[in-house]
Amino acid sequence: MLAPKRFATSLALFYGAVFTLVGAQMPFFPVWLRAVGIDASWIGVIAAVPAVTRFTVLPFIAGLAEKRGSLHSALIVTAFMTALGFAAVGTQHQAILVFLAYAVTACVWTPIVPLTDAYALRGVVRYGLNYGPLRLWGSAAFVVGALACGLLVEVIEARQLIWVIAALAAIGAVVSLGLKPLDNPKPHPAALHGATALLRDGGFLVIILSSALIQGSHAAFYTFSSITWQLAGFGGLTIAALWVLGVLAEIVVFALSPRFTWPPSALVVIGALCAMLRWLLTAQEPSAVLLAAVQLLHGFSFGLTQLGTMGLLVRQVPLHTMARGQGYLAACSGIVGGGASILSGVIYARYGQGVYYVMAVMALSGAILMWSARRLLLEPRSADQPHNSASGG
């Protein structure tokens, strides 16, 4: 039992480090961009950079990590390069230079979460663990990152926030050294060509596209919510608290996930419908009290969608190609999310909160796609992928 505990502990710590960085970067990186004089259109373009790298660079890195056979080594390398990249971003203040530095950084930063999820799902299958309770440590750390940055906004200039983000990236690099190697799974004889077969599998394509539409519908929120709230007079701590409310709901969903009995496809559909409701309510510019209630829907719009997607991937993707499967998921999410981010910048500049009506349509499209194709996803595809209901699916 010692090996599973060591794996779970090191993974929980790394999830924590990764998402502490995300918790600081996602709400407050746009605030830093605005503080150094970058306008809304450029902010939308810069915010889209990680999404673009997900369908250009990330699949290549995921495939390389899979061929090298060492996910934990790939995570260590990308974590250290990410820390250096954010430090470089902080030295630039002109839009084009920030864009270029951030683009290079995103090339090594965006693979971290998909590779970590692939590493986690291998451990889930090998040790019989539950994905949700492992993943919740990332969500809890997101809360810490958002709150810490929110407190710092009250005492330091917004122009200095990038150095907080860079410091958190450096902590993640150090924590990555504690990850434990996993034996490489042997391909099932019937799945030797699984890597290339994934893109010819209609069920797999439905999973990644519906997930991309639902999670991509969060693009306007991720990019402009903090700016909107700041312009409305909310302080840094209030902004952080609003983000935290959503993530606390997400943590509860992950913690309770071993008790869920719905099929993974149903979780995705429910998550999509909750996302649609969330964006329709957000478009009405609710008061702070109502906005706090709306934020609780994040547990469903993001959390249930994530759990359902991971559960479907455990069923649909051979274990030895899980890194590549995660890479394709991230690539599809990058195409959809990047387009949504750029589009949201244009729409937000003209219509403000009206951008959320477009996000609601995206979420509904994901629900319709998953519901229409759910019969393709009922059974595990191969003998090397035993289904664990506690893994989130």
Structure description:
By secondary structure, the protein is mostly helical. It has one domain: Growth Hormone, Chain: A, CATH 1.20.1250.20. It has helices spanning 2-35, 40-47, 49-56, 58-68, 71-89, 95-109, 112-127, 131-153, 161-176, 194-197, 202-216, 219-231, 236-256, 264-282, 288-295, 298-316, 322-351, 355-372. α1 runs antiparallel to α9 (161-176) and α3 (49-56) packs across α6 (95-109). The chain is globular, with a radius of gyration of 20 Å. The chain starts with a helix and ends in a 21-residue tail after the last helix.
Main traits of this protein?
393 residues; disordered C terminus; Growth Hormone, Chain: A; mainly alpha
How many strands, what sense, and barrel or not for the largest sheet? none
| Shape-level CATH architecture | Up-down Bundle
What is the CATH T-level topology?
A: Growth Hormone, Chain: A
What is the total tally of β strands? 0
Rounded to the nearest angstrom, the distance between the terminal CA atoms is 24 Å
Mean pLDDT: 85
Total of DSSP H or I helical runs spanning 4+ residues = 18
Whole-number radius of gyration? 20 Å
Strand content: under 5%
What string, H for helix and E for strand, traces the elements in order? HHHHHHHHHHHHHHHHHH
- Provide the CATH superfamily: MFS general substrate transporter like domains
Shape: globular
